[in-house]
Amino acid sequence: MHTLPLFISGAEIAFIMFILVMVFGADKIPDIARGLGKGMKAVKNASNDIKSEIQKSADKQGINTDFTKDVRGEIDKVKEDIDEITGSISRKP
């Protein structure tokens, strides 16, 4: 199982939420979250547009971009091999 490391704990997140409520008020929080969501969606759409334009340009120029899939597959194989090797090793606390 792969998890992303979080650098803040649950108590810190609760404290940040408390500060946000104190500064902006409970009625403004949904508007702020909605605005952040729209902003994140706009960034995602823009990055997808840029990726598609790069892909189209590479296709027009005859550049083969399939090697990235091959590299990703090899990296996944190496990760699986490492997981198999280190899976049997137990760490003592």
UniProtKB/TrEMBL annotation:
Tree of life domain: Bacteria
Keyword Transmembrane helix: yes
Transmembrane segments: 6-26
Membrane topology annotation: Single-pass membrane protein
Pfam families on file: TatA_B_E
Keywords from the UniProt entry: Membrane, Protein transport, Translocation, Transmembrane, Transmembrane helix, Transport
Database matches in InterPro entries: TatA/B/E
Main location per the UniProt record: membrane
Location(s), subcellular: Membrane
PANTHER family: SEC-INDEPENDENT PROTEIN TRANSLOCASE PROTEIN TATA
The protein, known as: Twin-arginine translocase TatA/TatE family subunit
Source organism: Christiangramia sediminicola
